[in-house]
Amino acid sequence: MTHKKKWLTFAPAGLVVVGLGTCLVQWAADKKRRKAPTSEWVAAGTAALVVLNAGLSLFGRGVSEGVLYELKEKPQEMDFYNVPRM
To answer: Which residue ranges traverse the bilayer (predicted)?
Structure first.
């Protein structure tokens, strides 16, 4: 799989999972507000934070694959003195 395909897969997937994680955090907070048993809202909040952090990791991987795509697969531009930019 090329860096471009990884970038176009991981970055949007990460954004979707981050959105899901934030919704789950709100759901867990609502459980606490409604005075659900402590073990219930703590478990829900922990799961929500796991999903949120997984989304951030996926998005970060997408960003790194995008940078690798830019560095390795696109032709390098020349600067003013005809020295390849890095």
So the answer is: 7-29, 41-59
Written as six digits, the tokens of 63 are 């960003």
What pTM was estimated for this model as a whole?
0.79
Q: Where are the domains positioned within the chain? A: 3-72
Q: What is the 3-state secondary structure (H, E, C) of 3-64?
A: HHHHHHHHHHHHHHHHHHHHHHHHHHHHHHHCCCCHHHHHHHHHHHHHHHHHHHHHHHHHHH
Question: Hey, what amino acid is at 85?
Answer: R
